[in-house]
Amino acid sequence: MGSYVTKKVNTGSFNSFYCEGGVGNDQTIIFLHGSGPGANSESNWSRVLDQLSEKYHVIAPDMVGFGNTDLPDDTNLTFWQWTTARVQQILEIMDYNNIKTANLVGNSMGGVVTLNALLYDSGRFDKVVLMGSGGGARNNAGPTPEIVRMSNFFKDPTIQAFRNLISWFMYDESVVEEQFENIVKTRYEIIMKPEVRELYPKLFPTMPHELTIPPSALRRIKQPTLLIHGYEDQFVPHESSLAVLEHIPNAELVLLKQCGHWVQIEKFDRFIQLVDQFIGQTEAVQLTK
Prior knowledge:
Elements: E1 5-10, E2 15-21, E3 28-32, H1 41-52, E4 57-61, H2 79-96, E5 102-107, H3 109-120, E6 125-131, H4 145-151, H5 159-168, H6 179-191, H7 194-199, H8 215-218, E7 225-230, H9 239-247, E8 251-256, H10 263-266, H11 268-280
Parallel strand pairs: 3-4, 3-5, 5-6, 6-7, 7-8
Antiparallel strand pairs: 1-2, 2-4
Helix pairs in contact: 2-3, 5-6
Organism: Lysinibacillus composti
Domain AB hydrolase-1: 29-272
Protein name: Alpha/beta fold hydrolase
């Protein structure tokens, strides 16, 4: 089993916190977390980083607005400005570590950041994995009831309301057993910090379809792309990945039954297998007739 360390480095106008492991391995994978309450790199990716750092150089930042990354001086930003700041943050971390190109794995909002990174500077990224990702139009559908509860959490910020919210991210929270209460406690402590409570409402889109990547942009993405989605995901329904799949030319989709929004937790072994097979295959297999 590999391991990782945590660092905090200057990334332009603020300092970024990130996890890093497997330094010296040939390929770099950057993991981007979602926007769930209390989200951060370690709570999303710790087991994944431990596993994949044996073979890959792995980095997982706390994206600006979350976790232990410093806030910019001006936090009165639009959703698109927050997204661009996170894309620039990724590139700054890559430059700091002398990484010319990297693979991206984005979960939920992290998938939206990933897609925007490809539009911002396509040449810096190799292969792409989108897991439970937003970005796809869903026939003019509005936010799900779960998203509404999440974005309006501070209208009733009780620990039980938070526990319910966290359980809804999964098809069956019993898969995390004793870890569940620790996840709830750790994330609740983060989200109840006064500075987080003040910032939280600013981090979500205010207009319909701000998350949606235009099909005209998706069809110009050249990177090999693997979409992974829990079939029972109630935060970003799997129709979002179907919509993205429709337009990205070099893409494939894996749908997993009895799985919600956190594939990397609920289907850990399968997630590791899929990412390793997809990113680790550097040459095409020669088929014999």
